[in-house]
Each structure stands twice: as C-alpha cells, then as structure tokens.
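Q: My labmate handed me this sequence with no annotations at all. I'd like to see what the chain might look like in three dimensions before we decide whether it's worth expressing. Could you predict it?
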Amino acid sequence: MAQLDDVGDWVRRRLPELLREHAVPAASVAIGWGDETVAAAAGVLNRATGVEATTDAIFQIGSVTKTWTATLVLQLAEEGLLDLDAPIRASLPGFRVADERASATVTARHLLCHVAGFEGDVFTDTGKGDDCVERYVALLADTPQLFPPGELFSYNNAGFCVLGRLVEVLRGKPYDACLRDHLVAPLGLSHVACDPYDAVLFRVAVGHPTDEPTDVWALARSNAPAGSMLAMRATDLISFARMHLSDGMGPGGDRVLNARTVAAMQEPQVDQPPTGHGTSWGLGWELWQLPTGRVVGHDGNTIGQSASLRIAPDHDLAVAVLSNGGEQRLLHDEIVATVLRDLAGIELPRPTEPDPDRAVPDPQRVVGTYESVVARTVVTAEADGRVWLDRTPLGVLAEIGEPAYRTELVGGPDDTVLPVTGEGGVHAPIAFLGDDGHGRAAYLHTGRADRRVE
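A: Here is what I predict for the chain of 454 residues:
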C-alpha cells in the first residue's frame, strides 16, 4: 500500500493538470492519515485579480457545513438538552410548515436524516441580523409537505436551518457564535470564516459559476446552518474530520463528542435512492457501504464553489477537496478515489456512462411535469420512444442566473435513467419513484424528490 508522502507527491503533481483539464480556477487538497497531514493547492482564487491559491487560502465548504450543524445538535443531545425523537415543537413551539400533522410530528432525527418530507430548497433572505435564522424558520409556515415524515429520503436544506435555529434557542446565542464556541475554538482552528466579514481577513476564494468570478460571494445568512456561509482551509476541514476519527477528542485532549455519539452519527438511518450518491444516510453524514470498506462524508456546492469531505473510519483516513469553478466534480472524484484506493484499499463505484442505444424502459411512467421551488422539470417522449428532460430554474436559482438544462434520457442501472448531456461533466442517475395512482411516477428524484404536478 502507498505511503502518505507518495500520495501527497502525486496530488501536487496532478493537481495543476486537473485544473487545466476541467477548467477549474483553483483547488486546495488536504489528506489526514493518523497524525500526519499533507496539503496542496494550485491555481488562482479569483480570475479577476489573479491571486494565487495557497494551502492557507479559505474556500466555502457549502453543505459540508451540515455535518458541523449535526455535530452541534448531537452535543445538545449528549447534554440532555434535546431528545432527537421528540417533536421539534418541544423546543421550538412555533415551528410550522403547511401540513399541521407534519408540523406536530417532525423530529430532530427526521431533519438530520433528510426524511422530514417538506420542501427543502427554501433560500429566503431574511437579512444579515442575528435574528435571520429565527425569521427564516418563521417563514416556513407555508412550505408544502411532499410526503409524511419518515417515508422517503429527500435532501433538505430548510430542515438544517430549522436545526440551526434549534441550536440557537437551546444555546441562547446566534448560530455562528455556537459554531465558534463549540467547534471552532475546541478544535483550535485559526482560518475559519463564519461570514464575509471574517473571510476578508484571509486569502479567500471566489466562486466562478461561469468563466468569470461571481459578484455575489455567498448566499443568504439565513441559510448558514445549511451551508451558505462557512469557509475554511482544507486542513481545517481535516481537523474537524480527525475529531470524528478520534472518537470525539479534540487536538488538545478536550472531548468534543462522546465516542458513542460519533459511532451513532455513522450508523445508517435511511437508505438513499440509487441516484449516484451514498447508499444510506446517518445522523448528518452521507454513508457508503462498499464491498471494499465503508466511507463517511458529505459534499457541498454554493455559488461557484464546491467541497468534498470523505472519511474512511476503519483506516483513520480523511481527504478534503475544495475548489471554485469549472468541472469541479470530476476533479474531486479523481482525487478522492485515488486517495481512498491507495491509502485504504477502498474502491469507489465508477460512474455509469450513458448508453445512447439503451432506451428508457417505460416512457409513459416518467413523462410529465415535476416541480420544486427552485425548478420546473418537464419530461416528454417522442413517437419513436426517445425521452427528453427540460429543466427551468425557478426562485433563487433563476435569480443567480442558473441556466436552463435540456438533455435526452436513456436507460440506466437499478431502474434509473441517465442524462446523455452531463452537468459539469457528470451523468448523475435520476430515479422515478412512487405511483401517482395512474401508473405514473409520483416523484422525480435526484437526491431531492420533486413532486409530479402534471
């Protein structure tokens, strides 16, 4: 098996090549194996300014923040301040979504596992004040319920904002203060920014949703618990992972979590549909149960920036990749797959490439219109059986200039379909689940469940 220094040398050689191959402006990589860490960075943080990336540069980690929020929630459970299986209303009496039964029964466990069932991509901007998360949660009262709590996995940003509010109420201080006091400080992290005011103190990456840098660095502060703000170095993300690899112990010997809590967070709670993600979900963590070993992790995407964190708990190994534009997923996948294979012997599944000659098995089951608050997706079939998908961004995605997307669909593995035209170079499987009562799929599922409306 390779040694850490060998893999580190490979990353330093390969990273500039990957930037060129995938039009990624900059990337930062860190690998932690046991007590050792190696790091590498290359490229430019902002094409408009030409500032070079270094290993001290900070990138937004996007939805990887959810693992930090989950850790804060589990700390509350350890202290006896929260029962994961009690209704959220026990701690947040005013919590409400459109469905009253769901409002009264949703629990912290439902939210941590993305099975709460209400619409998840709600990005309402409620200002920059310390009350922004409180105001955001109050505005969820009209959020539609897609399915009863616990019935189906559907990735839910709004649910993690509710968890962030839960942390605020039980700690009596704003979410970012909870992050600093209960995670950043105990982990001894020096290059973490909870907002743009912190970020300007560091060498900071700017996202590139197109070839040009964005003119909006971050999404709304109200979504901070779900991943709209937090930025750090790749090595800081490894320090967080190392705490989870060390049974909850911080670098100075202080306990951040109990060992049994760390283990519980990594236990499967719900299976995921076969949409190219993990096999199941734990308490905040995405999980891969593979023939060659188990992997724990999370990904994050925000305005032109992307983050990946993977942990191999049985090998004391973690790898973090941060980047700021281009075909980021292909770069991340190569680095993560190589590190896990060479240092832990874990083989990640290879992405399935679409076969243009493999028809969608039952076009009439999937044809229709599916909608969420951020997209309207229309699936149509031609007389010869060819199936097409057209997606139009709505809401905040339309506001930030997300382009429309059109692709032909072909048959894929495990009763999924595959897009012929990939996004960012990736052909992620799409599942059509459930039954609308007329023999047609009730949901288009890409990790998120979009409900049939026509």
